[in-house]
């Protein structure tokens, strides 16, 4: 007699209905996001309809890659500070902060508010963002200056959110920022969002650029256990230097 002869259908492991429903919901949402992303990719192969707002919902977070997207409100505030006072010559580098890049594009759709469109460049490890074509450059913090030479010394507005809260990642990201920056003094607008425990290192790495801890507290769409802070070398309506 084979083993299967004694195996009854009722003996098969089964999920309870509520768990099964949650699993089905997860797969349905995943498939919908994938379809939206494929549609976005197909449209990018021709040309984006820049009049339609973009959403980070198209790009699911990967905790394994330390991806934690900002809330739209946070990303918008950061993007507004990068756009404040832009000129025809302005170039904005967004390093490992794709949610800010998305809001930059959305804000620039308002031609009345932002008649000048500065050059944007997203430096990012996640190659899904290559759908943004000329605005995308693959970036691995482990190789901080392995980038297109044309980017060197080109940017007067930079935001960076290093993916990991350790000295190695933060220091290499700082090398990238220094390499990208047109100058290390005014009129450079420099923002870094990272963990509170990186404060002393941030001041050390960017002190000569005038970076200080600000009163603005970035928030993430799905929450984050680490206390996060915004560091910058300028004050604005959205924040002041922390006393």
Automatic annotation (TrEMBL):
It is found in: Cytoplasm. Its EC number is 2.1.1.-. It is an enzyme of class 2 (transferase). GO terms for molecular function: nucleic acid binding; protein-lysine N-methyltransferase activity. Keywords: Cytoplasm, Methyltransferase, Transferase. One of its GO terms (cellular component) is cytoplasm. InterPro entries: DNA_methylase_N6_adenine_CS, Efm5/EEF1AKMT1, Mlase_EEF1AKMT1/ZCCHC4. One of its GO terms (biological process) is methylation. Pfam families: N6-adenineMlase. Signal peptide: none annotated. Belongs to the class I-like SAM-binding methyltransferase superfamily. EFM5 family. S-adenosyl-L-methionine-dependent protein-lysine N-methyltransferase that trimethylates elongation factor 1-alpha at 'Lys-79'. HAMAP family: Methyltr_EFM5. This is Protein-lysine N-methyltransferase EFM5. It comes from Aureobasidium melanogenum (strain CBS 110374). The gene is EFM5.
């Amino acid at each position: 007699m084979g083993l299967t002869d004694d195996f009854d259908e009722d003996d098969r492991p089964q999920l309870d209905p509520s768990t099964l429903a949650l699993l089905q919901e997860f797969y349905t949402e995943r498939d919908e996001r994938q379809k939206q992303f494929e549609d976005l990719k197909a449209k990018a192969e021709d040309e984006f309809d820049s009049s339609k707002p973009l959403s980070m919902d198209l790009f699911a977070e990967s905790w394994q890659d330390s991806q934690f997207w900002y809330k739209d409100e946070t990303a918008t505030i950061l993007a507004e500070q990068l756009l404040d006072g832009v000129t025809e010559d302005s170039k904005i580098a967004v390093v490992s902060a794709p949610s800010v890049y998305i809001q930059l594009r959305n804000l620039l759709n308002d031609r009345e508010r932002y008649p000048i469109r500065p050059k944007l460049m997203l430096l990012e490890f996640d190659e899904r963002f290559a759908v943004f074509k000329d605005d995308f450059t693959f970036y691995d913090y482990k190789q901080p200056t392995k980038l297109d030479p044309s980017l060197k010394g080109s940017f007067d507005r930079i935001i960076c959110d290093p993916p990991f809260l350790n000295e190695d990642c933060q220091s290499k990201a700082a090398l990238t920022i220094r390499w990208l920056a047109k100058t290390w003094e005014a009129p450079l607008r420099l923002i870094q969002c990272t963990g509170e425990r990186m404060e002393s290192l941030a001041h050390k790495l960017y002190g000569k650029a005038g970076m200080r801890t600000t009163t603005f507290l970035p928030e993430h769409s799905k929450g984050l256990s680490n206390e996060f802070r915004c560091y910058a070398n300028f004050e604005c309506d959205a924040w002041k230097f922390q006393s």
